[in-house]
């Protein structure tokens, strides 16, 4: 049995979604970010950062949500979610990195600044984060023009990662109204039976 430490309220949601798309059963240990469990000595032996998610598959331990989802798809996916050619797989990885570095990283900082830091949010910093997110959403909007999914003709990890990242912007108070292709893509992903709710 594959064990996943994390929750639907953390980046582990990507791994929960990936596993569900692939029909993989997980033993989910519902650890929220910064929870008591993640700070325990036992957990820090698995993940020294004290963050979630962490996957344990036999003797193999892996952290970082995109790496975990890639591992699940590569080892257990039977060709699903990673494209049909090496070129498609490379493009999928490109979009995964894009989502995490160009959207998620800035949305995460925006969340910390507006929801968790005491006192007034630094407006200049927030606007800078939104500027970078906006640029990334513009790129996605163009890439999704006339397409159902980012790479190929079926859902891939590029979509799972991208939809989670674009959806995160809603949590931090942004709107997808200016990006109708992105909004439709996020909605389509969230309507899939495997999507974690």
N→C terminal distance: 23 Å
- Biggest sheet statistics: 4 strands, mixed
Report the order of strands and helices: EHEHEEHHHHH
Strand content: 5-15%
Task: Give a topology summary.
Layout: E1 2-6, H1 12-22, E2 26-30, H2 41-46, E3 54-57, E4 60-63, H3 65-76, H4 86-116, H5 123-143, H6 157-171, H7 180-190
Parallel strand pairs: 1-2
Antiparallel strand pairs: 1-3, 3-4
Description:
The chain contains seven helices and four strands; from the N terminus they run βαβαββααααα. The radius of gyration is 17 Å and the shape is globular. The longest helix is centred in the middle third of the chain and has 31 residues, at 86-116. It has 197 residues and is of the alpha+beta class. The chain has a four-stranded mixed sheet with strand order 2-1-3-4, with helices on one face. The mean pLDDT is 96.
Throw out a few tags for this protein.
alpha+beta; four-stranded mixed β-sheet; 7 helices; 4 strands; 54% helix
